[in-house]
């Protein structure tokens, strides 16, 4: 084949040498706009896994690259007058110019033609090519020519950064955060040869503008950065190799995703690689890795399907299918890290203490978890756990295992929870006339013995017409209140768990069948009239609700207050108001379901007016020493609906009204929603509200392991973790997860103590067997 790589960066050079090495008959040309053995940029970072892949792909170049690498294990943080360090992270760095020079020499040795100082405007300049590889960077001219086919999605991110270097060798991957009068600046610093380090400075657009950096030239910008980071630089100067850029050389990162990676131009197949196809933020240092992995996979697919012209389309389809999955994974982690740095000032640097800030930074991509940190640096993590436990009021003796964050106590008002795990409200749809029966006693009693600090029953309805289904629990009469008192006494009698109640009203989502008879489907008989913020049915064939008038509001508010009185008298210790998932109060908050033109519709203040009225009336009669939380849908996952920024506005309003925590859920407001699921997918909402609004939060959604909960709590992303489905599968989830991570000083029900030792022993045997 005749192969032309447009762009002489890592992707083009590495593909050229791999294809020539594996099939010398190929005629391969790499075209580069720069001069021979000249390039821009400072250092690049690899992982040990990347080097393993390169050793398999081309041992010769891998050996030379490894000889040039600088390896370090430590990460150091400079923050608020402290220096903290952790080890075991395993980075390797090399100068970008040195890397490309090694690959250029290897290409020449194998017979790849290198063409320098040529600007390529179009792929049509190579009509005899069978395959044209467009690896001409994020501003690819080739991709732009076929934009309709490649479907590029380019998002310019808000932060500004400048890529510099310094002749000071740092012995750790160093992060330096400095506060100025206009905001925070952070430096990402790492050594890539014996005497030189990359020094990337990043800040927000607001700080960039406020300091007038947009009006400075490069030298003035460098001097500005030298002044801010003077202590870390310790007399060393900052350097630039981007004098070709006009102005101050501060850039915005461009996040790129393409819908398709290859086209046929009528004569040649054209495929994207590297930054022309996708970008990953420098916060996790994976841009070069992605480019090299692209080259390796494309060469591998030619090996699998044959190196002939006829199979090119099959090869390119297979290449894209495989790479798209890994690229999405890396981009997701890079996005998490990128977004962390974009909000780091107002969300973390201003609010978190140095130890927790460091933990948050280390786990910013969500690829590194609590137990993974233990594997990397047990000493550092156990020191952090001791700090966290001390803040929670636990005195741990020297030599004792420190409890992880999820097993530390948490106090809200006059209530102290034994740990930070709660059994989330989960509808069972098994009540008769709203009454707790033997099923609920068995169900909730089992979970009360399972180790969680707080146990919630399902959403409990404040009136008969507030129910979702005929099987919903209620608290509108004294008989129901008596059963609640029985439940409270049962839970208190079997362990340390406290009892929570979530009060709600179904609104437009009421009068439906129990889920196993048709989820969200309207009752065929025995239904009741529905009310909502506006007259909008949930499903097209659902019952049409009536838009509430002032009389309806008065009645509903009073129903909530009456239920609150009953809950308090029954001894319930925690009260949550349900303002999520499209139920009645949620229907006021979301613009999708609130189409009102009166004082209860339109602005945030108007849409929150009635939910706040209900909350304030409940808070007024709920005992002042008992906590009260609010569950919000923090994302409607539908165009035109609420997004996390809206949820933060509502959270601030409920905080002002006396809420102690926000329970951060999402969705179920609009039937045509398109949520983006994934591990811990709702935790970012809790993070935002906790650290920007300044109110404690509960994280919920796809939290299924102790590792998840500990990572969330340790990083300060939430204060409690609500575990739902895992508690359905395992009533003793908290006890079992504690045992699984080696925590044996956890209280089990005395009736079950004979099983505790055996359970822990079996886990230890299984772990030992797996390690053999």
Automatic annotation (TrEMBL):
Enzyme class: oxidoreductase
GO molecular function: anthraniloyl-CoA monooxygenase activity
Keyword Transferase: no
Top-level taxon in the UniProt lineage: Bacteria
Segments forming a coiled coil: none
Domain FAD-binding: 3-328
Stored InterPro entries: Aldolase_TIM, FAD-bd, FAD/NAD-bd_sf, OxRdtase_FMN_N, YqjM-like
Gene3D superfamilies named among the record's database cross-references: 3.30.9.20, Aldolase class I, FAD/NAD(P)-binding domain
Domain NADH:flavin oxidoreductase/NADH oxidase N-terminal: 407-734
Enzyme Commission number(s) from the entry: 1.14.13.40
Keyword Oxidoreductase in record: yes
Keywords associated with the record: Monooxygenase, Oxidoreductase
Name recorded for this polypeptide: Anthraniloyl-CoA monooxygenase
Organism: Bradyrhizobium japonicum
